[in-house]
Amino acid sequence: MTLADEEATLALGARIASILRPGDAIALHGDLGAGKTTLARSILQALGLEGEAPSPTFAIVQPYEPPETRIPVWHIDLYRLEDPEEARELGLDEARRDVAMLIEWPERLGAGLWEDALRLHLSIAHKQDAGGAGRSAARRLTATIPPAWETRWPPA
User: Fold this and answer.
1) What mean pLDDT comes out for the span 5-26?
2) Which residues neighbour 18 within 8 Å (Cβ) at sequence distance 6 or greater?
C-alpha cells in the first residue's frame, strides 16, 4: 500500500489503533527516516495519548498505561541493542500478554521476534522530478500478516 503523505500515515495509525489489543506486537521495519516513529506516534495518539510521544531511542522502552492510552502499550526502539540477548533484560516476553507492543528496529531481536507479530515494512517512495531525481513524502508499506491478524488486516 502507498501512503501518499503524512496525513495518510496518521490515518493508517488511527485505523490500526482501532483494532489493537493487549498481546499484539507490531514490528516496524524500515531504514532511518522511513516513517516508523511517525506511524507509532499516530497509533499512540489514536489510543488517546495527548501531546507528542517521545522517541524511545534512549529509554528503549516507553510504556503507556490507561488512562493515558485506551490500552496498555509499550513503544520500543531497539536501535541501540547490539545483541539479541540484550533484549531479554527488557522483559518483553513477560509483558507481552498484558500490553500491545510497537517495536521499531525489530530485526535487533534476531530470531526472538514472535511469529504472530504483524510485520510492517516502510520505505520511502521516490518520485522523479524534471532533473531525474527527487524524494517524496510518500511511503510504501508492505505488511506480512500472520494468522493472528488475518481477520483484522487491513484495518477498516
Assistant:
1) 95
2) 46, 155, 156
